Amino acid sequence: MLTPADKEQIDRFVAKIRDAGSDKQKVRMIALSELSRIHRRLNPKTGEPYAPTTNRSLITDYRNIIKAELGEEAPVLQTLKYSAPRVTEYRQHQQEQREERHHNQRPLNAQEHIERAVALLNYNAKVRWSNAAAIAGVVALTGRRPYEVGCVGGFTPDPADAPRVLFSGQTKTRETERAATPYSIPVLAERDLVLDAISRIREAVDPTLDNKTYSQRFGKEVGIVAKRTFTDADDKPITPRELREAYAAVAYHKFASRKISQVQFYNEVLGHQGTDLNTSLFYFAFYVSDGDEPR
């Protein structure tokens, strides 16, 4: 998500490009200078360079704003992009991140995780309503992203299976048709509890919010609730993003047949590309430490 400082910097950059007019060489030099600045930035909290994933995301934000303000064919887009060497660096960083996760999975008590989510939703519904708490609880029990829970996701009972719902409206996919097609996912607790919470969320949250505005309005509070409510078996807090990973581990433990591999199960319940298992490999952050075996 863009910070106000990032947005101001992008606005200044776009203004420079406008001032350069049709001078292609000047536009190119301005873009190269900006790329260099992005990659040289240091995180003020750590004093270390930002990760390639962060820089790539910021460059994508630059490009989206440029397209909106200067047009899809703006010449500056030919220069302001991730270079081939940077793409190689980014992929290497992803590979290292994935390997680190697979060698350092965190323990998670499945039953305790479910009970905390149920208690959160029950308290929220009966004692004191909070949109952020409701969203965090539903995320924990369905594995959907906060924005999907709050605004764009469709949740209806799966008539073929009581513990499941039909979900549509997945974000972070370029395939509009696939995003709109419902698919069945297991719910970790009583389905009606989750559907009632979603219904009430939709009454309170403007469904027309875009992802950026939604995140600005609810992201911080959902994060506070999630980290306050959910922890792994070592008492380390779980973030909203990690709730999706925790859901996958608990759902596999609770619902998966022994015949299905863990990565294939993750692929199906998280809604990733059907034949490409690579994305799902990034979600192996937890292992269930309960004594019970999966079905």
Low-confidence stretches: none
Anisotropy-based shape: globular
* Average residue pLDDT: 90
Number of helices: 12
Query: Structural class, from helix and strand content?
Result: mainly alpha
Helical proportion, percent range: 55-70%
Distance between the first and last residues' Cα: 39 Å
Tell me the strand order in the biggest sheet. Answer: 2-3-4
User: Count the strands?
Assistant: 5
Round the Cα radius of gyration to an integer and report it.
21 Å
Secondary-structure element string: HHHHEHHHEEHEHHHHE
The fraction of residues assigned to DSSP E strands is 5-15%
| Biggest sheet descriptor | 3 strands, antiparallel
Task: Offer a few descriptive terms.
three-stranded antiparallel beta sheet, 6% strand, globular, mainly alpha, two-stranded parallel sheet, 12 helices, 295 residues, 5 strands
Short description:
With 295 residues, the protein is mainly α. The chain is built from twelve helices and five strands.
What does this 3D model show about the protein?
This protein is mostly helical. Helix content is 58%, strand content 6%. It has helices at 4-20, 24-40, 52-70, 84-103, 110-126, 131-142, 146-152, 176-180, 191-204, 211-229, 240-255, 262-269, and strands at 106-108, 154-157, 164-168, 183-186, 286-288. The strands form two sheets. The chain has a three-stranded antiparallel sheet, covered by helices on one side. The longest helix has 20 residues, at 84-103. The relative contact order is 0.11.
